[in-house]
């Protein structure tokens, strides 16, 4: 008898960030008005789904993205550190072409495979896989939503598809308020799908790793 469980990885919506700071794990970066509309659009997309568990990164932008889903399904938002944004030594800086020409930045960029500028890809995979395994057990036979960030979601997808973890950041398929869905039959991953419920609201996907 088939037992299908779906874990949806939801990237947060647009953040109010007029200065273009790489905010990483910094506090007090909240959704913009457009980001809140994205969150509402995603909650509407989940209508009719059998969502019984809702988890979020502890960062404000993720919690705020989860709120409309919490209201729609009457579910508490459980905070889980394993869903947090990837650590990045450049957080708090404005990372553009001028910054990348600065020799003080080069010491962080010597190894893109690790990567040298932040949390190792294999560590991101480890914590995300552990979180998904726990949530899958809780929502067995039904659906769960986990609100996270671009890089942790993308690394999870690459790992799920058997691809190498290092990659070009500009080729990530993980737009703002997008949903990457992992479908399991019993404990076996059988498919990975991707959708953009708020595509019509996207103006700029933001800096890599946002």
Describe this entry's structure for a reader.
With 210 residues, this protein is of the alpha/beta class. It has one domain: Rossmann fold, CATH 3.40.50.1240. The chain is built from 6 helices and 6 strands. It has a 6-stranded mixed beta sheet, sandwiched between helices. Strand 2, helix 2 and strand 3 form a beta-alpha-beta unit. Helix 5 packs across helix 6. The longest helix is centred in the middle third of the chain and has 18 residues. The radius of gyration is 17 Å and the shape is globular. The termini are far apart. It comes from Allonocardiopsis opalescens. One of its GO terms (molecular function) is phosphatase activity. One of its GO terms (cellular component) is cytoplasm. Pfam families: His_Phos_1 (PF00300). This is Broad specificity phosphatase PhoE.
């Amino acid at each position: 008898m088939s037992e299908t469980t779906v874990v949806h990885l939801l990237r947060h919506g647009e953040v109010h960030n007029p200065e273009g700071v790489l905010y990483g794990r910094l506090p007090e970066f909240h959704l913009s008005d457009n980001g809140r509309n994205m969150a509402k659009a995603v909650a509407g997309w989940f209508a009719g789904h059998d969502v019984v568990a809702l988890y979020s990164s502890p960062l404000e932008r993720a919690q705020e993205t989860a709120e409309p889903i919490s209201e729609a399904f009457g579910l508490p938002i459980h905070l889980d550190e394993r869903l947090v944004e990837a650590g990045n030594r450049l957080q708090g800086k404005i990372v553009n072409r001028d910054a990348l020409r600065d020799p003080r930045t080069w010491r962080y960029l010597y190894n893109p495979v690790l990567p040298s500028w932040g949390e190792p890809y294999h560590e991101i995979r480890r914590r995300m896989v552990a979180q998904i395994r726990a949530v899958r057990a809780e929502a067995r036979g039904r659906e769960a939503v986990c609100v996270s960030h671009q890089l942790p979601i993308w690394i999870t997808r690459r790992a799920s598809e058997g691809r190498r973890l290092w990659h070009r950041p500009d080729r990530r398929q993980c737009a703002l308020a997008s949903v990457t869905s992992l479908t399991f039959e019993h404990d076996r991953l059988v498919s990975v799908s991707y959708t953009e419920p708020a595509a019509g609201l996207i103006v700029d996907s933001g800096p890599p790793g946002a």
